[in-house]
Design brief:
The structure is a homodimer of 257-residue chains.
Chain A lengths: L3 E6 L3 H11 L3 E7 L3 H11 L2 E3 L11 E4 L3 H9 L7 E4 L16 E6 L16 E5 L2 H14 L3 E3 L2 H30 L9 H10 L5 H4 L9 H10 L3 H19 L1
Parallel strand pairs in A: 1-2, 1-4, 2-3, 4-5, 5-6, 7-8
Antiparallel strand pairs in A: 6-7
Chain lengths: 257, 257
């Protein structure tokens, strides 16, 4: 089969990981655009493809245009695209699909739900891709594309994706902040953060066997006032005290529903 | 070498996992005590040892007595022990070692930091054991005991252990609550919780490569007011709104320190 031709608009963490993965799965990445010449060139060299930092130079020869830029930059960029060829998709959790409607006919969303980082390899096989398109044929096409890389492809509306993105903030950003507070607590008392790593690994592993609502343990679920009082006394930072109180209350209330 | 003889006082999750593991590492569990006959018998059958539900019947023939009971039950139990033989230790994060001082001469703490559950196997090799004892020879002894099971044995004072236990509430209980809120958000919008599992797995895996303070991403760290406002609007539950605001603020403040 002829390879699908793809242009990446954006060269950040997600664009980098996704484009390199697509290259391994019968996609031909033909061009990378980034406003930052250095970013565009760096990614293009990895992909062995063309690059540009001029919007006007974005080629019209691709089947698929993947916009992977900051949420705030997207609309301006769409308005300045030099043509209306191919299928346009973005990779953002919180932007509705119809952001494309004023600019092009064939459009959709191609959203891999994962936290990407420069230093860690990503196993795309297990990453859920949430897809959506304006035309049913394009939804089918995006599903085929995603299935080349992942075993988990889910059709989700823009509305569902908004909640998904919100949920991801809790599951990823906020839980990581809990790890950061825990790290500070042990480190300021002469113990290494590494001592907490097995607990964190097991906490996350547990929810592959049981729902987190069922996995909840600790003083908060039984609202053990004795431990909760002692713990809030130990916390010197007022913000951490308040977080402790509020989350303990929330865990207790949650468990009763 | 002659096996060290151990009595378990308590038959909960931790006592069950720990006693079964110790049995595999040259310890002879000679008796299990629990106030609940059923619990005592069930664990004793697994260990193929004696059991009792009468405090007065706890044997004085052991080298080590491991108290693994509810924090609130410990002191009363110590006061009613029928003898003062052997080394007495507890397995609790938040109880100071000197809880034993009024009752016995040789005492200490043997605290494996992990979340234990009935349905999941536990790999003790990676679990950090935090140990402490009144006499230096007993600290050495507890270190030897812990090293039979784990590669990670750390001497920690009661003061350090208090902060460790507090940190564990953040790292385990509170992060799990973040997963539970995330689950509810997707489930009430027609998506399965399983779609979040790869993200959660990667979130926890990431902090084995980088410190959580460095791993922090998301709208809160740059205090993206646009996303934060939209997200708090989406959250119908007032408690979740407040948690979102407070944690976003805390992440932002934390990143500046």
């Amino acid at each position: 089969m002829e390879k699908s031709k793809v242009v990446f608009i954006g060269a950040g963490n997600l664009a980098t990981r996704l484009s390199l993965e697509m290259k391994e799965h019968e996609f031909e990445i033909i061009q990378v655009f980034s406003r930052t010449e250095e970013s565009a060139r760096t990614l293009a060299e990895k992909l062995e493809c063309d690059w540009t930092d001029q919007i006007s130079q974005i080629t019209d020869k691709a089947d698929l245009y993947i916009f992977s830029v900051k949420d705030t930059a997207l609309e301006d960029l769409l308005a300045r695209m030099p043509h209306k060829q191919g299928l346009w998709v973005h990779t953002a959790g919180s932007i509705p699909m119809d952001v494309f409607a004023p600019f092009v006919q064939r459009y959709g969303v191609f959203y891999p739900l994962q936290t990407f980082s420069k230093i860690r390899e990503t196993d795309f096989k297990v990453i859920p891709f949430f897809i959506e398109a304006h035309f049913p044929e394009d939804t089918d096409l995006l599903e085929q594309y995603a299935r080349r890389m992942s075993d988990s492809v889910i059709r989700a509306s823009s509305e569902q994706r908004r909640y998904l993105h919100l949920a991801a903030v809790f599951a990823n950003n906020f839980s990581n902040h809990m790890f950061a507070i825990a790290a500070r607590l042990v480190e300021t008392h002469g113990l290494p953060f590494e001592a907490l790593q097995p607990l964190i690994t097991e906490t996350a592993a547990k929810i592959t066997d049981m729902h987190p609502a069922a996995a909840q343990t600790g003083p908060a679920i039984r609202y053990d006032e004795n431990v909760i009082r002692k713990h809030t006394e130990l916390l010197e930072e007022p913000a951490f005290k308040e977080i402790y109180r509020m989350l303990s209350q929330s865990i207790h209330d949650f468990s009763k529903k």
